[in-house]
# Entry
Amino acid sequence: MPTRLPDGRRKLSVIHLVTVLTTSFIFIGESPAAQTVTASELPGVVVDDRHAETIGEWKHSVHTRPFVDEGYLHDDNNTKGEKSVRFTANLPESGDYQVLVSYTPGKSRAQNVRVAITAADGQHTRALDQRQTPVHASAFVPLGQFAFEHGTPAVVEISNRDTTGHVIADAVQFLPADQFDAAAYDESAAERAADEAAQAAAAALRRAQRDAALRAAQAGARRLTPTDLDQELRSALGEDLHTRPLDDEGFLRRATLDLIGRQPTIDEREQFLADTSPDRREQLIERLLASPQFGDNWAKYWTDVVRYRVPEPELTFLNYEPFQAWLAEQFNRGTPWDQIAREMLTAEGKVADRPAATFVGFHQANAPRLAAETTRIFLGVQIQCAQCHDHPFVDMPRATFHQMAAFFARSEAKLPWNDSSGIEVKSKAEGEWKMPDMHDPGKPGTEMTPVFLTSVPLEEGLTDAQRRAELADRITAPDNPLFARTLVNHLWARLMGRGFCEPVDQLDEMADAVLPEVHDALAEHFVATGYDVKDVFRLVMNSASYQQSLVASPEEAPLGAGPLARRIRGDEVFRSLAAAIELEDAAASQAAATDAFRFPPPPKSTSDRVDEAFGYDPALAAEYRPRTMDQAMFMMNNDQLHRQINAERGADTVLAKLLTEETDDARAIERLFERVLGRAPSQPELEFFTQYVEKHQDRATAYEDLLWSLLNSTEFTTKR
# Structure
């Protein structure tokens, strides 16, 4: 209670004064009803937190207004990764809807809240900064426009995974697209409208010109059949390639690893081997291409292509999950490769909202790095040696490098501390790239005009967005053979064990090149398809050249005559372990920040640790891919893996269940080989292991030894 002064006036304590002022603001300045939003009065379909499904313990609160109806939920900033809120709506009709979420902002909120939207075309992921105050009075923030189907539940799930700060879940609104007014949710929308309209018109013109050029190129380009591809190889090598066709179980394992990044499960193996249809291999390829795991697998590959050359900034751990999820969505949709490349080069905004901005943003909009990486990734040309001097081995003057860097002169990236999802790619109003004087660093550099792949410089006065769009046009133009040649070189290297050019990101005269005629023919086919990535897989994998047994070594046959064995990637090792012995992707808990350790690194799951041990830069040639003690020690000694090898009766493992079901040792050994190596054992292998089990006093221990040896075999981590 406040004390009274001698004259009868009350003396207010600081706490009481704050209470009075706060109460006056809330209850006198405006009524409580004015600071709540009534769901039933909003257009569209609104799902409040009261009607949502919760996973984990969420707390109800009315502390911060405005909120929808009777309050909101928060995760209490603990047990991260174990809590989510799922909002489900049955929409009255099919169509496009804007999805909006409501939350109460504050300094204690999380900045990278994961929101998953399940729409008609699959799942989409967005990240939300709940410290930012929503512009609209309803406290709703739009996440984007999505297509939904009547009769299929529309689902929005808010998770507290990998967040720091309180996660809020209040309500979700599904608003028909024609009722959504973007300007009401964005203070700068009206100011940008004119610029966006002009840019859209220019982009439409460029798109029309590009599409016309692509159609012309497609009309003149030759499309191949698998038989044509085989004939191209025979002509190039001058001999018959197909003396040892691959058997069905070998084809199944190879194709499954190549397309979805793991070995087949025992059920998939039995289903395929039981199929007697003559086109079963073609059908398998189509099923794998249609699997969501196809996008996941190849998104991981291209994410590795990018991330292995990105330096880690200070005080920020780079999270590639949004970028990888976006890439997976593009591959599964069948988005043409030129559109994917264009989006990576031109995207603006926060990485959380525009994952394609990862490429420019994670390089911190550094013009020299972007110049080198753009040409390396999309054109297979290494220009970084020309940054400081004329290239010593190829005809490339130093100016070439800096003319390329000039395309990014007006790009910038805003980096928040310890939150890579908040990295924002923006444009500067002005600025030009200058080539430093290497002889006298004190002199002002030479201002460079953006020029690349043509002698025609850009017109003056172009914005950053226009410069990068022009660069994307030049790179993906159908008359630029390097763009198509680079993609098919990567795919051929993964499918056949060796690229037409090695390293795979170097197509110039420095490369170790083979079969240039086949390389050109496959690239021409890629252009003819409109840069359809899946079509290249379909073509190569249906060829007899792909479907033959391995060439044991390059010395056995001419280089390129057949597939070579290759080590599988780290993520493929983990997924194969999951398929073989049901190894779980156990997540570690986030270390708490301390005064001495303000930014602890993100926790590593089992898949992270496997990928860390077995992963490698995809650009490395086979002979340079690391073989380390960490790889051997993980497979031999990892505690979690060892628990999955337990054969004791009653253990909840694949091995324990197998031994309970199969009392016949020969059949048990066969099933173990099929599960772990994707093939039946040879007769000598079967005899050897049967004798080993019979001689061993403890059957369970003998089978643990067998499973351990199969997992640690070179064959398990090799595509054959």
User: Anything to note?
Assistant: The longest helix spans residues 189-220. The chain is about 40% helix and 15% strand. Residues 309 and 373 are 8 Å apart (CA to CA). Confidence is low (pLDDT under 50) at residues 1-34.
